[in-house]
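note to self — DONT lose this again. spent like an hour looking for the file last time. sequence + predicted structure for the chain T wanted, 481 res
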Amino acid sequence: MPRRQIRVTGAAEAPLRAALRALRTELDVPEAFGPQVLAEAERAAREPTLPAYDATDIPLFTIDPPTSTDLDQAMHLSRRPDGYRVRYAIADVAAFVVPGGLLDAEAHRRVTTLYFPDGKIPLHPPLLSEGAASLLPDQTSPAVLWTIDLDADGRPTATDVRRALVRSRAKLDYESVQKQLDAGTAEEPLALLKDIGLLREQQEVARGGISLNVPEQEITERDDGYELTYRAPLPADGWNAQISLLTGMAAAELMLAYGTGVLRTLPAAPDGAVGRLRRTARALRIDWPHHVSYAELIRSLDPHLPHHAAFLQECTTLLRGAGYTVFRGGVTPDLTTHAAVAAPYTHCTAPLRRLVDRYASELCLAAAAGEEPPEWVLAALGDLPKRMAEGTRRAGTAERECVDIVEAALLKDRVGELFDGTVVDVQEREPTVGTVQLESPAVVARIKSGEGAGTLPLGERLRVRLTQADPGSAKVLFAPA
C-alpha cells in the first residue's frame, strides 16, 4: 500500500541534512552492516540455493524508478484463448538467507528498509538487495514464480507458485512505459499491462476497493525560499500496482485455503476518521456531497491538481490501523480482509525490503505443494506480527518526522506571516490545540490558541499566523490571527 513519499532535491538538501542525521540517531536507526554479516552476504551471493526448475526462457521485465537497483518483482503478461496469463517473479531472499544465521538475525532487527529524503537504510546488505538477490536485467536469479490465469474480465481462474530460475530481459521505468503505452508502440507483453491493469481496476471498483494515487512530495529551493510541489503518479504506476495487488490477494486466498498463513489486515475506518477527512476536504475546497462514498470521491480526484494531491496525502491516515494477522491449524481469524483492498490480502511481493514477505512466500510455496511449511517459518510466526508492528511503527515515525522536518524547512523564513487555512482537528481534552490545513502551501500542522482564547473553530476557514518553524526540532506551529 502507498506511503507518503518525500524527495529533497537541489540546494534545498543542505539545510536539512543535520536534522535528518539527528532523527536517525533519535530513532536508533541501524546504519552500516557489521563485517561478519557482510562476510556471510558475500558467501551467500557466491553460493545461493538454486531451484531445479528453469524458467529463464520467460522474457520477464521490471518496472521501477530509473535509479532503483533493489528489484523485487519482474513480470511477463500474455494472452490466453479465454483471457490472460500473468507471470510474476518475486526475488527469492530465502535462497540467500540461512535461517538462524547472521543475515537472518540482522533482517529481524531491521524489519523493513527505511526511507529518508536523503537516502535509505536497507533491510539486507546491498550486495544482496541491489546485487545477487535483485532481479536485475540479464542476470540469472532464483525467484518465487507466480502464474495467475485471468478470465476475459480480469478475474483469477487458476494460480500456481513455485521456485524457479528466472532472467529479466529489461529494466523499464514508469515514464518510458507510459510513453510507449500512450504511443501504442509497446510490444504485447508490455501493452497488456494497460489492458490487464484497467480490468483489475474495474474489479477493484466492483468489490469496493480503493487505490490511493498518492503523489510524491518534493521540496526545492527557489530564489525566494522553498517551494513544495508534487509528482503525480502516472496511470502506469497504478496498473503496475494492480499486478502486485493481484498477487497479494492470490497469496492470501492460497493461505486461507491451506489453513496457515499471515495476512495484512485493516478494519473499516471509524466514523471519526472519515469525519476528519470531510473537514480536510472542505479546507481544500473539494466538493464531497454526503451521497458520494469515500471510494467514489477518491476515484474522482486528479492527483495533478495541488489541492487534490494534498487531500490524497491525508487519505493515507485511514491506513494506519493496518496490521498482520497470523493463523494456524485451519482456524480462520475473525478479520481476514484489508478494508482498502476490500478482500483478503497479504504482503509477499517485496522481500528485499520487508521481512514478512519472505515468510509469506514460504507459506504459499508449501500450500501450493501440499506440504508442511519449513519449521523455521512456523517457529517465527507467533512473533512476526509484533516484530512487523515495531518495524512498521519505526518506519512510520521516520516518515512523519521527515515530513515535519521538510515542512519546517519550507516555512522557516516565513515566521510571522499570515495564511489561509481550516481547522481540521481539535483535541477533545484541550480544545485550544488542534490541526490546521493550509490552502497554500499544502501543509498540515499544529495550531494552538493563545492564553485565554476560546475553543478552536473546528471545520471553519480562518486566517492563521505562523509562530514557529524550526527544521532542527521538526516543529511547525500556527496560531489564530
